[in-house]
Amino acid sequence: MEQEKKSSIPVAVIVIIAIIIMIPICGIIAAIAIPSFIKYRNKSIEKLVITNAEILRDSVEVYRAKSDQDVYPSNVDDPEFILLENPINEYEQAIIAGDQQPPSIDKSLEGCVYYYLYPDKRDYTIVGYGLGGEPIITIKPN
Question: Are strands 124-129 and 95-98 parallel, antiparallel or unpaired?
């Protein structure tokens, strides 16, 4: 029994060595993986905003084509108009109807698409805001 104790390495030493080796490895993996994940997430949000802006443009154009008065929708809550909700991120709604020109940078609009209809109802501007509230897409009628 005494021979077994002398020849074996204590379990505590093995555990400590494993921890000393594993902590830096986990740190290196985290240092590589976390920035990649954040970059992927940011690109996904921007692609979602661009897609929502393009869908809104298509919806606005369909509304105008069906309109007897050949005008764009004045309110995105109009029953004849489709209000799109943002289904896959934390933003409450993807589309905001504004009564003024879209701001150039507004942090509160991050991840949203802003729809502005000009007073004559024959022209509009759609602006999609990416991270930091900076515009990443602007759409006007042809």
Answer: unpaired
SS3 of residue 79 by DSSP: coil
What confidence tens digit (pLDDT) does each residue in 3-37 have?
555 557 788 888 999 999 999 999 999 999 999 99
**Paired tokens of 40:** 């992927």
- Tell me the CB-side half-sphere exposure of residue 106, using CA atoms within 13 A: 12
Please report, as a single letter, which amino acid is at residue 95.
Answer: I
Q: What is the pTM of this model?
A: 0.69
User: How does strand 124-129 pair with strand 135-139?
Assistant: antiparallel
- pLDDT tens-digit map of 33-65: 999 999 998 899 899 899 888 888 888 888 888
Decide: 101 and 117 in contact? Cβ < 8 Å. Answer: no
DSSP reduced 3-state for 21: helix
3-state secondary structure of 17: helix
Residue 29 to residue 98: CA distance in whole angstroms: 45
Residue 100 near residue 116 (C-beta atoms within 8 A): yes
Please give the sequence-ordered ranges of beta strands (E in DSSP) within the chain, or none if there are none: 95-98, 113-117, 124-129, 135-139
